[in-house]
Amino acid sequence: MNETALTSLDELVRPCIDLIDARHQAREQAVKVSRTLIQQCARTIRATHRGTFEQAAQLLAEAGQTAQQLRLAVAAYDDLLAAGYTQDALKEYVEAAMVYAFLVGHSPPSAERLQVSPAAFLNGLAEAASELRRAILDCLRRDEMSRSESLLAIMDEIYSLLITVDYPDALTGGLRRNTDALRGVLERTRSDVTNALRQNRLMAALQQTEEHRVKPTTT
Fold first, then answer.
1. What is the pLDDT of residues 159-207, one digit of tens each?
2. Which residues contact 16 (CB under 8 A, 6 or more apart)?
3. What are phi and psi of 2, to 5 degrees?
4. Residue closest to 135 by CA, chosen among 121, 123, 119, 152
5. How far apart are CA 135 and CA 99, in angstroms?
6. Least buried of 47, 72, 152, 198, by fewest C-beta within 10 Å?
7. Out of 3.30.70.2330, 1.10.290.10, 1.20.58.2140, 1.10.10.10, which CATH number does the structure's domain 117-142+149-219 have?
8. Would you say the pTM of this structure is higher than 0.90?
């Protein structure tokens, strides 16, 4: 093979290597940013459960900026945007945004507003519903029965909607599995709320009976 042929081969190979290197750099950046986003979302949910809503709002805003950074990192590569680590991180962002909205009392954001795929949105919504169990148990410990029932109704509505999404997992990102997990959480939570309501009613009836018994009679 002559020198001209070798030079021609180098000209053919070099652009491919450059493209692979650029894709590799984008992938490394996406993995790093995904980890950061997941950590920010976890801190947002923790702050929301603790009732430090101002801090949670700030953390959620930071997570939103990181989610945008992640999207920009893979903007030129559709396969990296669809990769598991990218979609998992965006799903966590949806979960954090939904938990915050539900517990603060804001309208939940749409997939378009969060700039996530339908699969990431639906899976994040399922996990946010499961996360409400913790808030409901906290309400029960504080005897906030009305709020616990309201949050349970949100869980129930989400499950009722997600169970109607009947498409292959390849399109929904494993939504059926997350919906099944939500069903178990919902059933346990409904049982806890029902038992607490019955106990409260029993205690109220006993108290009323006691008050009746000790009430002085008038002659």
1. 999 999 999 998 999 999 999 999 999 999 999 999 887 876 766 666 6
2. none
3. -80, 170
4. 152
5. 10
6. 198
7. 1.20.58.2140
8. no
